[in-house]
Specification:
Helix content: 10-25%
CATH topology: Thiol Ester Dehydrase, Chain A
Structural class: alpha+beta
GO molecular function: lyase activity
Organism: Actinoplanes regularis
Protein name: Acyl dehydratase
CATH architecture: Roll
Pfam family, one: MC_hydratase
Order of helices and strands: EEHHHEEEE
Shape: elongated
Number of domains: 1
CATH superfamily: Hotdog Thioesterase
Distance between the termini: 18 Å
Radius of gyration: 17 Å
Largest sheet: 6 strands, antiparallel
Length: 154
């Protein structure tokens, strides 16, 4: 099954998202350019060599984007509105060449009061690298269609 509708979620369920993503130098450079991030730690190897990590860091917002994307098939394939990301934490750095994986746990569910065709799903998501070291965590809420509703139901 690709994607869950509101009724398919149960508080406490954990989804190990099926895909991983290895981050290349090109990914990091392009994303940094697209977002106009001028911190040289992401694109200047000479500069990065003088930092505590001694090498290029992956742009943190690229990590957010990749982990969000990894979670889509399980938690937001049938969402029509992201309501927010809370408490984004980055306990460890991500470097070019790291492979990122993710898992999400359902924290809360509630039916929408204003949209009878939808519910609000809240999940806790963790992104981790190839060594199983957590690199990012957050809580995310989204508005998800109920079964039989939304564009896919047409």
């Amino acid at each position: 099954m690709l994607g869950r509708y509101y009724e398919d979620f149960t508080v406490g369920d954990t989804y190990r998202h099926p895909l991983g993503r290895t981050i290349s130098e090109a990914d990091n450079t392009w994303f940094t350019l697209l977002t106009l991030n001028t911190n040289q730690s992401h694109f200047n190897a000479d500069y990065a060599a003088g930092t505590p990590y001694k090498k290029l860091l992956v742009n943190s917002t690229l990590t957010v984007a990749i982990v969000t994307g990894l979670s889509v098939p399980d938690v937001s394939q049938h969402a029509f509105a992201n309501l927010g990301w809370q408490e984004i934490r980055m306990p460890n750095p991500v470097f070019v060449g790291d492979t990122i994986y993710a898992c999400s746990t359902v924290l809360d569910l509630r039916e929408s009061k204003s949209r009878p065709y939808a519910g609000i799903v809240k999940v806790f998501t963790t992104g981790f690298n190839q060594d199983n070291v957590d690199v990012i965590t957050w809580t995310r809420s989204m508005m998800v269609y109920k079964s039989g509703h939304g564009p896919a139901a047409r």
